[in-house]
Amino acid sequence: MAQKTALIVYAHQSDGSFNAAVRDTTVKELSRQGYTAVVSDLYAMNFKASATQDDIIGESKNTQLFQYGEETMHAWEEGRLSDDIVAEQRKVEAAELIIFQFPLYWFSVPAIMKGWFDRVLTQGFAFSLVHMYNNGIFKNKKAMLSFTTGAIQTMFQPDGINGDINVTLWPLQNGTLHFCGFQVLPPQIFWCPAHSSPEMRKGMLDGWTARLGGLLAEKPLTFAPCELFNLNFHSGFLMRPEVKEEQRSRRYGLTTGHHLGKALPPDNQIKSQPQGDDADAQPNTGN
Ligand SMILES: Cc1cc2nc3c(=O)[nH]c(=O)nc-3n(C[C@H](O)[C@H](O)[C@H](O)COP(=O)(O)OP(=O)(O)OC[C@H]3O[C@@H](n4cnc5c(N)ncnc54)[C@H](O)[C@@H]3O)c2cc1C
Of 40, 82, 101, 213, which has the fewest Cβ atoms less than 10 A away? Predict the structure, then answer.
């Protein structure tokens, strides 16, 4: 049987950081499980963060107006993307699991990792207007965010000063990972390691090791499937009227983003939907 491959896209400058310790824990545990664990160490690679014309080999199709999305789509089709992008795309193709490991920067990923999203997940390779969300190109792969924060956990509660972490995570998990089809596993959040005791930090790493043991068997997060929407420009890609009607009597919105003006489903972006008795209180997304 072919060996399973996991890709860890890693963004931290220092080998002595807590992020580096998490990365090493991940590689060690996944290797123990028989995975080939590949690390893209973005700072060490000096990975180019900006999406520019240099990412394309040869002439642009449109010499009047350079449009990055269009040009990289053509370049992908014609094998004219720069070597560093192609190398990352090969790693994505080979991986059944991708873990993005990073310190939270401005409620998001560090710029170098955003550059990886911008440059590696090109149209055609990672998505198209036909292949997106649950019909997306990477629907048979799993991906997840694993990150550290400077904030303590309560700061990211719905009544905490930073606001609900579920809202913070929606653009990355829905707009990037799930848009490309990935089944998104619940994130691994290491709250404020810098102000935790050595024992607490060890506990965080041990907890992560234990979670990695059953990671691939975890239920992914819930998103609204494409089938709930009219998938054409004419109807504006809006939710189908009968679905909206069906949702009317429900207590919560569908997801963090598709809240339909109601209360957000609790922890929609950090936990899998509950099963069994508790499921009645949760939205039915049909998947
Ligand atoms: C530009 C920028 C924007 C930011 N935006 C945000 C934001 O929006 N929200 C937010 O919450 N935070 C934000 N931060 C803070 C940032 O997220 C944290 O500083 C970062 O997550 C801490 O992770 P680290 O790996 O750098 O920790 P480190 O400071 O490297 O590590 C913490 C501690 O763990 C120790 N350690 C290392 N290895 C081990 C090991 N093996 N076992 C036990 N302990 C170990 C280290 O020695 C250190 O004492 C921002 C920071 C910057 C620079």
Answer: 213
What pLDDT, on a 0 to 100 scale, did the predictor assign at position 3? 79
Q: Which residue type, as a one-letter code, is found at position 43?
A: Y
Cα–Cα separations (whole angstroms), residue 179 to 174, 207, 236: 6, 29, 17
C-alpha 57/C-alpha 118 separation (Å) is 17
Average pLDDT over residues 204-225: 97
Ligand 1 atom, smallest distance to 103 CA: 21
CATH number of 5-217: 3.40.50.360
What per-residue confidence (pLDDT) applies to 129? 85
Whole-number Å distance, alpha carbon 149 to ligand 1 midpoint, is 6
Q: Residue 106's closest CA among 45, 158, 147, 157? A: 147
> For 234-258, how does the pLDDT look when each residue is reduced to its tens digit (9 = 90+)?
999 999 999 999 999 999 999 999 9
Does the C-beta of 257 come closer than 6 Å to ligand 1? Answer: no
Backbone angles phi, psi at 202, to 5 degrees: -65, -40
Hey, what amino acid is at 276? G
Residue with CA closest to ligand 1 atom 36: 18
**Stretch 149-176: mean pLDDT, rounded?**
98
Ligand 1 touching residue 105 (CB < 6 A):
yes
Quick one: average pLDDT of 39-52? 98
CA-angle at 171, arms to 266 and 215, nearest 5°:
65
Domain boundaries defined on the chain: 5-217, 222-287
Res 1 pLDDT > 70: no
